[in-house]
Amino acid sequence: MASIGGCDLPNPAPRSAHAQIPIVKDAMRRWAAKDSISVEKAMGGRTIEMVSLPDRECVSFGLGNFDVGGVPTYCYRRGTRQLIWEESDVE
């Protein structure tokens, strides 16, 4: 497993370069839709982590040292926006 990037900003949604990557945008939209809130509100205080595996690329949204109940993670088939694994029932 190789980490290909991370972002440690208080509210990464509007400022993170990662937030412009299509799978990250899709994952942020999915995470916000769970609670019917805006992406900006859903991402408040969260960090964006990306991991590259041989067959997939995964996006996680952590809360730094305050992760409670797990971290929402979305994995996509490499080179596509096809969601192949999701762990978002974490709060």
What do you see in this structure?
This protein is an alpha+beta fold. The protein has one domain. Helices cover 23% and strands 32% of the residues. It has three helices and five strands, in the order βαααββββ. Strands 1-2-3-4-5 form a five-stranded antiparallel β-sheet, covered by helices on one side. It is globular, with a radius of gyration of 12 Å. 24% of the residues are buried.
Q: Based on CA inertia axes, which overall geometry fits?
A: globular
Q: Please state the CA-atom Rg, rounded to the nearest Å.
A: 12 Å
Tally of contiguous helical segments: 3
Main beta-sheet strand count, sense and barrel state: 5 strands, antiparallel
| Main β-sheet, spatial strand arrangement | 1-2-3-4-5
Mean pLDDT: 82
Give the beta-strand count. Answer: 5
Q: Count up the domains.
A: 1
SSE ordering: EHHHEEEE
**Low-confidence blocks of residues:** 1-14
The assigned structural class equals alpha+beta
Assembly form of the protein: single chain
The span between the termini is 26 Å
Strand content: 25-35%
